[in-house]
Amino acid sequence: MSLVRRIIPCLDTDGARVVKGVHFEGLRDAGDPVELAARYNTEGADELVVLDIAAARDNRPTFLETIRRVAEQLAIPLTAGGGIRSLEAARAVVRAGADKITVNTAAVERPELLSELSAEFGAQAVVLAIDAKRDGPHWQVRIRGGREGTKLDAEDWAKQGVQLGAGEILLTSVDRDGTQSGFDTDLTEAISTGVSVPVIASGGAKSPEHFLEVFTRGAADAALAASIFHDQVQSIRALKAFLKANGVEVRLPC
Amino acid sequence: MKVTLIDYGAGNVPSVERALRRMGAQVETTNRPENISAARCLVLPGVGHCAALITALDAHVLRQPLIEAITRGATFLGICLGLQALYESSEEAPKLQGLGLLPGRVTRLPANVKLPHMGWNTLKTIRPSRLLRSLPSEAYFYFAHSFAAPTGGQESAAISEHGREFLAVLEKDNIWAVQFHPEKSGEAGAQVLRNFLRAAA
To answer: Which pLDDT score is estimated for A55?
Structure first.
């Protein structure tokens, strides 16, 4: 008996449609969230993340409806986020069917948000998303979809976030996101060994070897990717078979 | 099959309800004492902080009706916190009293592993389990918790491990409970709910 490493597809949506960008910019349409969710649910995804990435912030009802329709398809956990700035907004997302809430910019601007969410939903439902960019020997926390820098160091912020009540870290390498050149394993290893909660590695995945590396050298508890799954460049089933053959424990769907 | 789902505001009530309906159960979602008193088949879901569950049960005056319903033989399924609440107390909320239907105390998992215990894990059966009927021994279930009930009691049907062994499946007469989330555990979780509904029918 041991906890297995998780594979998590991510649906970046503009509210109603799945989109994908390179370096957080240049969005293109990548499909219907409900169809993709149903496919991943049966293909053996361990969880699903749905993010409202664009400025669809002014179209929140559309995103909530997307969460509702996606949740209908799933018998696996669902994390949702993007633009959640208040307890009220988080409640709406949970009521729509999310099991976990992820927050990013709003937590940087008002760290108490993490404590408020944790008190209401429990730490296991609070995912702190950190967008990190290499800056010499360290990594800088970036906000607003990676566009804006902060004074925060990613390792420090991760530890502080956990203290405040985050139960999981979703760590995205801004340098690698969309490049398909592999996860930033140095970043992942630094954060994952530095905090007491699970860390989901994100940004740069393409080949099965990238996943193997982030689970072994990067010490990631879970790995997240988007377009390689949406475009069927990589099947989840084949990826898991590869990982298992290479000594990484994963859940093979029945 | 009518199932009374106790809704005290827990985050996973909608997904448990959806999963039970998918299985053809007729689900009554309620926080009213009289509905719980009249129930023949009860499900107590839960996720998050155990104090939230205990205080919500008391705020809605559900503690006594629930204990009485279970004591007179209503079939009961506890999920996650719904399992932990059955014990006398929990280290997570030391000042509060659990339902006390089972002796013992819920404690925190050790700090030498990452917490919460979040993700998919397997089970080891201690004795033949009705909830796990037709499931392969390598089936995976989804967990999301930092506290857990003790193993070793006669109610232990299956255990799992994260830092230490802990109780994963509890079966004692009409009292059934699981530490994992069957509503989030894919086909394996669906089979557990099916087994429960069949046993309760």
So the answer is: 47
Mean pLDDT of B82-96: 96
Instruction: Please say if the pLDDT value at position A117 is more than 50.
Output: yes
The average confidence (pLDDT) of chain A is 93
* pLDDT beyond 50 at A60: yes
Residue B143 Cα distances to A33, A131, A232, angstroms: 25, 27, 29
Give the H or E element holding residue B9: none
Task: Determine the pLDDT at residue A25.
Answer: 57
> Which residues does chain A have within 8 Å of residue B136's beta carbon, measured at their own beta carbons?
254
Which of A75, A121, A253 lies at the smallest CB-CB distance from B11? A121
Out of A19-28, A171-180, A236-245, which region has the weakest mean confidence (pLDDT)? A19-28
Asked if the model's pLDDT at residue A210 lies above 70, the reply is: yes
Distances B112 to A122, A131, A250, B117 between C-alpha atoms, Å? 21, 27, 21, 12
Closest-CA residue to B123 (of A3, A240, A249, A7): A3
Catalytic site residues of B? 80, 181, 183
**Mean pLDDT over residues B157-177, rounded?**
98
Does the beta carbon of A131 lie under 8 angstroms from any beta carbon of chain B?
no
What is the domain partition of chain B in residue ranges?
A: 2-200
Q: Is 70 exceeded by the pLDDT of residue A54?
A: no
Q: Which domain holds residue A185?
A: 6-245
Shortest distance, CA B77 to any CA of chain A (angstroms): 19
Task: Please list every residue in chain B whose beta carbon sits closer than 8 Å to the beta carbon of residue A128.
Answer: none
Taking Cα atoms as reference points, which of A18, A60, A24 lies closest to residue A40? A18
- Specify the number of domains making up chain A: 1
Domain B2-200, CATH among 3.30.2000.10, 3.40.50.880, 3.30.300.20, 3.40.50.2000: 3.40.50.880
Contact A77 B47 (CB under 8 A): no
The mean pLDDT value for B148-170 works out to 97
Q: How far apart are CA A175 and CA A133, in angstroms?
A: 6
Verify whether residue A177 is a known catalytic residue.
no
Whether chain B has a CB inside 8 Å of the CB on A155: the answer is: no
Mark which residues 191-250 of A lie under 8 Å from B by CB. 196-198, 221-222
